[in-house]
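Morning. Coffee machine broken again, so started the prediction first thing and wrote up yesterday's gels while waiting. Chain of 334 residues, entered below exactly as on the submission form.
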Amino acid sequence: MTVDDLAVRLKELTEEPAPPMALDLDRARRVGGRRRRLRTAATVAGCAAVVIAGGLTAVTLTRSPATPDAPAAQPPQPPVVSVAPAPADDPLVAKASFGWLPAAFTGVEYGVGEHGDYSLAIGRGDLAPMIWLTVYDKEPPLDRLNQLGGRAVSVPARIGDRTGYWVTANAEDPINGGDAYLRWLTADGRWAELHGYYLDFPDVQQALLRVAGEVTIGTKAVPLPLHVSSLPPGFRLADGQLWRRPDQDRVPWKLQLYYSVNGANVVIEVAPPGGYPPKMGNPKCTTKNGLKACVTVDLPAAAGLDAIGGLQGLLDRITLLGPDEKNWTTHVIG
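Came back before lunch.
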């Protein structure tokens, strides 16, 4: 890995995906740890033997032939079909869902809001394998994060019956040294993209093609472990995440919903007992039905919580549905 390559990779880490608002210190800690691993890898290896992020295992790939700098063949644009509206009573709605995943992946995370909408297949360990699935209304720029140093090229690919392409800095290496981007035009006229890294399993290129081929495009309400009878007026969801990071969070999953209201930030967090406590303010918590719920606010007066009994009043509106995901609901609010 050259100094330029490392600089490009570090730039990506500052741009994708950003921590929700300024409150999520857990994610900031993990991103910081990932940056430190990158610096350590560059110092220790000092040569091209270090693969992207200093933690990828070399794999034998079956590469399809490609012509350097060849633009991706684009099919005629189909008519854009209307997309079903997201359910109003579920704050966490995915734009696309995974079908088949390699055995290295143990769960799927979801995120919505001001810092991006995504589904994320994730595995275990400090360098957990990750595949981000994102849907765009229009085709993104080839190098949408300007992270490939002006060398971005497309390598044509076939995803099921759809035409797509890899985005890479080297047409001879479609999966871009293990930091892979695969993009395709969906049947409804939008664009889907997989971004995978830390992919420690054989035949990465073929595996990603299969993952893409079995993605389902379309809104999907994600079942959540709580029901909220109502929210005070003016509450707007800024960010929401359902994480599955037991190696970092000490719990198998964690739900965080960040709301904005009158310049204040209100956070609702639900997880099994035993995880890290909320990092903002003085949380009000309860443990019921095998789950722990906490609510926090940075500006209580601005949030208008006094009218419902403060944080305790908000907490009283939450019913916890237990750790068994079969009992979770998509009818979350109201």
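The CA atoms of residues 23 and 280 lie 7 Å apart. Going to sketch it on the whiteboard this afternoon.
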